[in-house]
Design goal:
Strands 1-2-3 form a three-stranded antiparallel sheet. The protein has a single domain, classed as Intergrase catalytic core (hpI Integrase, Chain A, Orthogonal Bundle). It is globular and about 80 Å long. With 219 residues, it is mainly α. It has eleven helices and five strands. Keywords: DNA integration, DNA recombination. This is Site-specific integrase. Pfam families: Phage_integrase. GO terms for molecular function: DNA binding.
Length: 219
C-alpha cells in the first residue's frame, strides 16, 4: 500500500521526484480460503439483500470490494455486457475491462432506479464499505469460519480455475499485473497439465516394446 501511494505521488501527482526503495518482505505461504458452492448457499439467506447483492456480484466478476462499492452507472455498459475500472481505481494502476456474465447483469438490473450515480446502495445511500459487522455476523450464523471479504475474490478465482479457465485468461479477468498471483490457484486444477503430459504418450511404450525387453534380458 505504501509503495502504491508513493508511486502515485511521483508519477501522477508530481509531489516527489522519485520513489524511494522499500524492501518488501516475502509473502507467507498461508493457504487461500475460498468458499464452496454449498457454503455460499448457506450464507445467502443469512445476509441482508444489499450485502447479498454485493457478495454475488463479487462472485460473478471477481472485483475487489472497494471497486464494487464505488461502482458508478457510468462505468457500466449493459448492452455490450461490460464494466470498467478506471486506472486510478485499480490496484495495479491500469484500467480493467470486466465482462459481465448473466449473473452479474441480473444483479445490476435489480439496482436500477435506486440511485442516480452509484450502483450499490442501502436505504437510498451509497454503500461505502463491504465486509461490515453485519457481514461477519452472517458468516457466523452460516457456520463459516476464518473467512474475510477478500476471500470472495479468491473464491471467484478458484471456481474459474476449477471450471477450466486458463491461468493467463484468469490473470486478465482479475486485473493482476504479476503472473505469480494467479499461480497460487494452479493446484486447484492439476488436470490442465494432463493434456500436455499425454503428448508423450507412446514414447516410453515404444522404448520398452517386447522386442527391446527381450534384448535387455539377453544381456
Amino acid at each position: 500500500m505504501v509503495s502504491a501511494i508513493l508511486n502515485k505521488a511521483c508519477k501522477k501527482w508530481g509531489w516527489i521526484d522519485s520513489v524511494p526503495y522499500i524492501r518488501k518482505f516475502n509473502e507467507s505461504n498461508q493457504r487461500l480460503r475460498w468458499l464452496t458452492p454449498e457454503e455460499v448457499g448457506r450464507l445467502i439467506p443469512e445476509l441482508q439483500p444489499h450485502t447479498r447483492y454485493i457478495m454475488l456480484f463479487t462472485l460473478a466478476t471477481g472485483l475487489r470490494g472497494s471497486n464494487i462499492t464505488g461502482l458508478e452507472w457510468n462505468q457500466i455498459d449493459m448492452q455490450h455486457r461490460i464494466a470498467w475500472i478506471h486506472a486510478d481505481q485499480s490496484k495495479n494502476g491500469k484500467p480493467i475491462r470486466i465482462p459481465l456474465n448473466d449473473d452479474a447483469l441480473t444483479i445490476l438490473r435489480k439496482q436500477i432506479g435506486k440511485h442516480q450515480t452509484r450502483v450499490f446502495t442501502y436505504k437510498g445511500k451509497p454503500i461505502e464499505k463491504a465486509g461490515t459487522k453485519a457481514w461477519r455476523a452472517g458468516l457466523e450464523r452460516a457456520g463459516i469460519k476464518n473467512f474475510t471479504w477478500h476471500g470472495l475474490r479468491h473464491t471467484w478465482a478458484s471456481w474459474h480455475v476449477q471450471a477450466g479457465t486458463p491461468l493467463n485468461v484468469l490473470q486478465e479477468l482479475g486485473g493482476w499485473s504479476d503472473y505469480k498471483m494467479v499461480l497460487r490457484y494452479t493446484h486447484l486444477a492439476p488436470e490442465h497439465l494432463a493434456e500436455h503430459a499425454n503428448r508423450l504418450n507412446g514414447i516410453v511404450a515404444k522404448s520398452v516394446a517386447p522386442d527391446n525387453v527381450t534384448k535387455l534380458k539377453a544381456r
